[in-house]
Amino acid sequence: MNPYMNKWLSSYRNRLTTIFGGMTCVALFSLTLYIDQKSSSYIAEEYSINLMTLAKGLSDMLGATLTEREREIMLLSQRTQLIEGNLTSAEIRTELERIQQSYPHYAWIGITDTEGVVQSSTLGLLEGQAVAQRPWFIHGQS
What is the 3-state secondary structure (H, E, C) of 78-137? Predict the structure, then answer.
């Protein structure tokens, strides 16, 4: 074969190899970017779903707990001892402390008069003190 033809074929082969190699690299790079984008959006979507599920569960649990606390307050407000009895008696304080022990998340339980003066409370805390300006008393009236 002619040396010029060998040089041309060799050059042609090198060009084809370079072109196909470059096309393969571009295709692989594009495929990698596509897979990365798809997997990132999939992971973000999965995290979003998991976070929404967690938030829904926490919301339901919080709602149930608040409903339960509201029910306890309603039941307490209907006790004849609290309606007709002496709110400053030791019996009332004992009853409040028993209720507090039944649910360890109660930090303090107290009963006030309509003016916001604490009549009876667990461990005697704030008894005789005015709490009318405290947010819990203001919101409790409404």
Answer: CCHHHHHCCCCCHHHHHHHHHHHHHCCCCCCCEEECCCCEEEEEHHHCCCCCECCCCHHH
Phi, psi of 121 (to 5 degrees): -155, 165
**Within a 13 Å sphere around the CA of 80, how many CA atoms are in the beta-carbon half?**
0
Kindly state the DSSP code that residue 142 receives in the 8-state scheme. Answer: -
What's the whole-model pTM score? 0.54
**Residue boundaries of the structural domains of the chain:** 1-58, 79-142
Q: What 3-state DSSP class applies to 60?
A: helix
- Dump pLDDT digits (tens) for 19-64: 888 899 999 999 999 998 988 889 999 999 999 999 999 999 999 9
Burial of 72 (0-12, 13-18, 19+ CB in 10 A): middle
Task: Report the distance separating Cα 122 and Cα 84, nearest Å.
Answer: 20
Tens-place pLDDT, residues 56-107: 999 999 999 899 888 888 888 788 777 777 878 888 888 889 888 988 788 8
